[in-house]
Write a structure and sequence with these properties.
311 residues; 2 domains; six-stranded mixed β-sheet; 10 helices; globular; Phosphoribosyl-aminoimidazole Synthetase, Chain A, domain 2
Length: 311
């Protein structure tokens, strides 16, 4: 029998666990780590930490503190590891939280991430199974990091493009969380490895709804579309499209790159929020005040659970 204190568990594959304390306060807990997506050790630390923090923000919560997870080949030495940890600490400082320790192991492949503990007011909790027909879909970061980081590993990006995708991935989702709270958003998720298509499908499936998306309204990292048009398709994108494409339909006027972009496997992507129409103006106002992009990309509709229509 499920512990009655568990508010959000594993049933819908949500972004984080939520646990009710005897006081009535809600704790949010998450864990995430991965291998390097950029060459610079400091930037890798920033991105990995931002990605971990994002799960708390996507629940409408506020981070409290973190613990680090380090898998590091001893043969690489401690200097680059120090830079990774410095990058993670920089992101945590920006989020206003301390990193209070962690654990490290000698491993053949570098990995870094955080356990993040936060809290969320019950009235602000946003789960991935609470979308309703009529909700407006907003995305708080541009997509395309999968294509861009894949090209980065092949030395196909300019220095400006590499900097741009790094900055997108390292940006915290604090603005999105503030906007969600202001607009009384009850359903949201962050866009990571399953891409926009995969995460949207999972949220619609859990909520018993469908979605319509205006592809032209989806914000893109500059250069990502050109990579797909040139045939540069990462393995993660192919897997996402093969797995989740059966739950999607694409308008006949869209070219192949549209399906690839929505399946693009993100690292530390934006928040996909289902905003009630009555809260849309407040949601947009907070994003603008925070200097964050405003992108309304579609809406939730009644339809086959989990189906995503791109037009």
């Amino acid at each position: 029998m499920l512990n009655p204190a568990v508010v959000v568990g594993i049933e819908h594959g949500d972004d984080a666990a939520v646990y009710r304390l005897p006081s009535g306060e809600h704790l949010v807990a998450t864990l995430d780590f991965f291998t390097p997506v950029v060459d610079d050790a400091f930037d890798f630390g920033r991105i990995a930490a931002a990605n971990s923090l994002s799960d708390v923000y996507a629940m409408g919560g506020t981070p409290l503190f973190a613990l680090s997870i380090v898998c590091w080949p001893v043969k690489l030495g401690l200097e680059p590891l120090g830079r990774v940890l410095e990058g993670g600490a920089a992101a945590a400082t920006e989020a206003g939280i301390p990193i209070l320790g962690g654990h490290s192991v000698d491993d053949g492949v570098p990995k870094f991430g955080l356990v993040v503990i936060g809290r969320v007011e019950p009235k602000n909790l946003a789960a991935n199974n609470a979308a309703k027909p009529g909700d407006l879909l907003y995305l708080t970061k541009p997509i395309g990091s999968g294509a861009m980081t894949g090209a980065l590993k092949k030395d196909l990006l300019t220095a400006a493009q590499a900097r741009a995708v790094t900055d997108v991935m390292a940006t915290l989702n604090t603005a999105g969380a503030k906007a969600m709270n202001a607009a009384e958003v009850r359903a949201a998720t962050d866009i990571t490895g399953f891409g926009l298509l995969g995460h949207l499908h999972k949220m619609m499936l859990a909520s018993g709804c469908a979605a319509e998306v205006d592809v032209a309204a989806i914000p893109l990292i500059e250069g990502a579309a050109a990579l797909y048009a040139a045939g540069s398709v990462p393995g993660g994108t192919k897997r996402n499209l093969a797995h989740y494409g059966v739950h999607a339909s694409f308008a006949s006027n869209l070219d192949t790159s549209a399906s690839l972009l929505v399946a693009d496997a993100q690292t530390s992507g934006g928040i996909l929020a289902c905003v009630p129409p009555a809260g849309a103006a407040r949601f947009e106002a907070v994003l603008r005040a925070e200097g964050a992009p405003v992108a309304r990309i579609g809406r939730v509709i009644a339809g086959p659970a989990g189906h995503c229509s791109f037009r």
